[in-house]
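User: For a benchmark we're assembling, each entry needs the component sequences followed by a predicted structure for the full assembly. Here are entry 17's components. Please fill in the structure.
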Amino acid sequence: MAASDAPFIFIALIAPFLAAVAAPALTRVLGHWAALPLALVPAGIFAFFCRALGDVAGGQAFTGGYLWVPSFNVSYSWLIDGLSLTFVLLISGIGALILLYAGGYLKGHPQQGRFFSFILMFMGSMLGVVVSDSFLMLFIYWELTSITSFLLIGFDHSREASRRAAIQALVVTGGGGLALLAGLILVWNVTGVSTISLLIEYAPALKASPYYFAALLLILGGAFTKSAQFPFHFWLPNAMEAPTPVSAYLHSATMVKAGVFLLMRLQPAFGDTAPWETILPVFGGATLLAGTVIGLRQTDLKLMLAYTTVASLGLLVMMTGFGTPHALESAALYLVAHALFKGALFMVAGAVDHEAGTRDITRLGGLWRAMPVTFAAAMLAALSMGGLPPFLGFLAKEEVYEALAGGNPRAIAFTLAAVIGNGLMFALAFAVALKPFVGAERPLPGPHHGSEAGTEAGAPPSALPGTSPARGEIGQRHPPHIHEAPFLMLIGPVVLAISGLMAGIFSGAFHAAISAPMASAIAHEAREITISAIPHLSLPFALSLATIALGVIVYLLLDRAREAAAAALESIGWGPDQGFDQAMRGLIRGAHLVTTRIQAGRLETYIMVVFITIAAALLLPMAIFSEWPTWPAWPADAGFHELVIFAIAVIGLFAVVVAGDRLTAIVSLGIQGFSVAVIFMLYGAPDLAFTQFMVETLSVVILALVMTRLDLQPSDHRHGRELVKDAIIALACGVGFAALLLRAVQAPFNTSLTDFFNAWSKVVAHGSNVVNVIIVDFRGTDTLGEIAVVTITGLAILALIRIRGTGTVKPADNDPERSA
Amino acid sequence: MEGFMAIVVGIFFTVAIYLMLSQYIIRILLGVAILGNAVNMLLFIAGRVTREAPPIIGKGMETLPASAANPLPQALILTAIVISFSFFAFLLVLAYRAYQTLKTDDTQQMRLAEPEDASPPPLGY
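Assistant: Structure for entry 17:
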């Protein structure tokens, strides 16, 4: 890979989005076999980035990109080093397998094309997150993964549980994304750099800054929500409402690791400080223990796996922040191992659900005869998850213990947490991979293969595997023949499980190509990893034996352990999941309360608020800055006829207010209108006077026509306090406008605009009537706009008169339950 | 002269706003009609007034005489009169149609969009 590859990198980064556009049409033509051509896209990305393995292993990092908003120093730029390359390979490699798996899993589903589209969009977003160098690009892709995750969790949107899980995931991870944005902007302001590759150079300045702690907390807010760290862990198990390919891809192998990725990415800039090495291990350790204990309680295969994912993410965060020499290496190893075994186990759980019709571990058993390949893949993955040699999981766990085993009290506490957590995960791994397959065969609901199961059970075609309890009941009446999962659904788990084994056996090559470059990128210095699958007598190995012993005991006593965990959790009662519901309900109620207060539905109130605001805006500045106008002198030069006209206007105004019947009101309105026309005429504005005369005549005629048709009460209804209140508001506004006008005419007059029109009307526009020249020539476009307004008003009036309503109109119904 | 006229404009505004604060559409309409005049007068007077000399350039002259009225506010007001008239006509027809449908011009009884007993929004997802 070289600098000239930049256009190809860019194409690789947008290719999933292009494939997402093509996916629905392709699925319409090819059906579920569209998975094959679509999987070529991530497979191609995987192959393309494999070319970079050699150079990156040699310590090289590729940066490149394009300017995006140069004036703000924002660029579309990437940084490809050991860390991002590992993630890119995981995302594209597992992504290709997931597409194939989804082709089999959702075969016959009417929205399969949309599903492919969503998952490809997610793939593109996730690739963007891990290669981003620029802060803003990172943030945008980060939020895009939240949005695509929302779409995928809510894929089966006809169920309320799906909608709730989708909203919950979006609120938690999207909200965390905003915290991340704030944190990144803070870092940007402190250091002046907006790319990660440069930020590492400025690490000392950042750590010395007084804003370091605030920036750290904000960024942790983003990372902890995305990676489901305690107390934000609750959204991840709920996200299991999504179809299983989504759970395997987003919620175990890739998206939930984005938070861990961010911590690893920023470890050279933020790490090696007391807050970093305190907050991360404490929250990570708490998440590890909480995840495994809650996971023990579950009986649903996917939920058990989801909680072990929470626990694994906790372990990763703990190791990223632990700060001993081997800690970062162990995090790198464990991350890859986890992506492989957890992705495989989720796909196995989906296959079991797909064929047997249930994911309930207490109902499953004896499937190994019917599903031997699935069982083999499950066992390989579970052996890696349990941490047995020679699997990659064993290497990772040994490295974890190597890093933790110190001797001081802090190390002992975290070692204990790790042993308990890993022991419980061992038990859960085999509970998922062994329990459904061994033991006596049991009556099971049987397979549901998209359309055929849908018609058989009469279920709606949109129902997904494992989501319709009614189907299970029907299946029991006809004992089904359970058989191996279809080919497309076997490729994924088998390939991932075997990869975990191969990486463990050929650990030398694996370390050289993947894990050592990744650890070096996290540590920002060359690191080597030497651990191999050959057991050697040491403290870590003893801890491994203890872990396995604990795991075996818990596995054998699984039912009793489940009851104990359930009892312990029920004694706590309240959890953040209920808290989320309470917060959302509180939000809706609060919004309702505010809306009903501010928009009470009374027009008077709205108008009153408007005019009180206007009065305040007019009077307050004058009062504050003592800009009151002086009281005007009596106009000694005013002629008698002028004063009479003003008096008539005022009399007309008061007559409108006190008029007892409608004709008086209309006539009084005419009096003040014609008085205004006369005033215009007296003071040198004949054009205005003519227009005013016409408009006023029309107004009076139309008003008289309309009002005589309606049974209206034109006299004033207001009495007592209401009258006084309205009068005070009106008077305040009137005084405000009068004072404003007085102040304006008492200030010197700027005649520059008038002089301009005066100077050029005759000379340039060849018109003697300056007012007309301004209207039709200098400001001709404004007049065109005015004509358009009048035309549109005329059309609207015509429409109002022509269209007859049915008499009563029902308010819009916003309740989806009722309208459905 | 302008100072005296400013007080009259203040009375125009007071009456217009008092009418608009009513709860009956028909009185609000009267208020809107007067408000248009009030604003036009405000513009007119803010441009200073002169007596009986329209801004028309006489034969054989290139510019206005010094005694002529200010043409700029007149051009603005000419536009404003027409627009406020069309606005008034639209409001009048709207009120008329609302009365036909709802049998009232009392804004407190026009609660179709914001019903008095609005049920709280659903709390589910």
